[in-house]
Amino acid sequence: MATIRTFQDFRDAIAGYRLPRILLTALDLDLFTAIGAQTWSLASLARHLRASPRGLEILCRNLAAVGLLVKSRGRYRNSLFAETVLNAKHAGYRGDYLKLLQGQWDDWSTLTRSVCLGQPVVAGEELDETAYRRQFTWAMHHRSMDVAPRLARQLDLLRARTLLDLGGGPGTYALAFLKKNLRLRATVCDRAPALAVAREIAEQSPVGQHLSYLPLDFMKAPIPGRYDVVWLSNVIHIYSPAENQKLLRKIARVLPPGGRLLIQEAFLHDHNGLAPLGANLFAVTMLLFTDRGNTYSVREVTDWLMRTGFQRVSLLNMKAGTGDWEGGILEAVR
Ligand SMILES: C[S@@+](CC[C@H](N)C(=O)[O-])C[C@H]1O[C@@H](n2cnc3c(N)ncnc32)[C@H](O)[C@@H]1O
Q: Which of 24, 27, 48, 308 is in Cβ range 3.0-4.6 Å of 248 for a Cys bridge?
């Protein structure tokens, strides 16, 4: 997004909620699943969805304007993307992540209260409840299932024999590393309900038997074992600087000298901690869902690493679109 300098820029920035709201309404109606592989007249689609023809016409026209639907002679069909990724009846559906996004609209509406409180109004990321944890873990899998193999292709793990995926949730990254490195063995550590999802996913994978499970609250208990590599992806934004340094000390204890810690994170990259915008916006998500989470700069995290037993800290150069965040992988050697 460009810098806001004028009233028009400001107005346009606020009006940015319109398209997201349209997309979420389409998901609320499960419109893309209803359309499936067919072409529909508006009248029959309106009957099928129990929606008003007027409302649906305006909605579908907007969805066609952004290429999610194809409009031809007043009839509508899905684009290839909508028919696969957004259609609950298709194998490529990434619905659990879509549901997470749908739910967040209401949560973001509590932001003013959260800013005043400095706390979430709704419980989220730190919630231990089983059903929430399962759903969140599937959402994480649906988010990173295409990114993880791309990243595994570029990350050199050839000399590693053991890897700990700490806070690994669905184990999507661990499985991608195992697929690429057949001599590697990995352990995914997380809360028990998350690991149940990881097992279900691993059972469908040809390298699933190379994955072990460590149910643990790693903030409360010591981390057992010894690993050549620790992969810590999207975890430190949940915690405060003090908690993260405590965690890094624990991680240093499970690595041998020369062992590697790889951190994937929404890092801030500039001197003032203002860029990229995506990492700043993600800090707001942490305000809404965690008690102490935030996003941190590469410099800050490098300082923590140097204080907790690591050296040779470097930002890995990956091809664009490889990880969850641009420029988001930091390597440190124990
Ligand atoms: C945002 S998810 C990231 C999942 C995965 N690493 C990824 O990048 O897709 C954070 C994960 O860390 C786990 N986690 C956070 N704090 C934890 C703790 N104290 N003990 C165990 N797991 C924890 C959560 O359960 C969740 O699965």
A: 308
> Closest by alpha carbon to 49, among 37, 63, 59?
59
- Find the CATH number of the domain harbouring 38: 1.10.10.10
The sheet that has 69-72: what strands, in order across it? Answer: 40-41, 75-78, 69-72
Q: Give the residue, by CA position, lying nearest to ligand 1 atom 6.
A: 168
- Over residues 45-68, the pLDDT tens digits come to 999 999 999 999 999 999 999 999
Tell me which of 29, 63, 85 is where a domain ends.
Answer: 85
Per the structure, the complete domain to which residue 153 belongs is given by 130-333
Please write the tens of the pLDDT for every residue from 153-192.
999 999 999 999 999 999 999 999 999 999 999 999 999 9
The Å distance, Cα 274 to ligand 1 centre, comes to 25
Q: Whose CA is nearest to atom 1 of ligand 1?
A: 234
Question: For position 148, which CATH number holds?
Answer: 3.40.50.150
56 with 135, same domain?
no
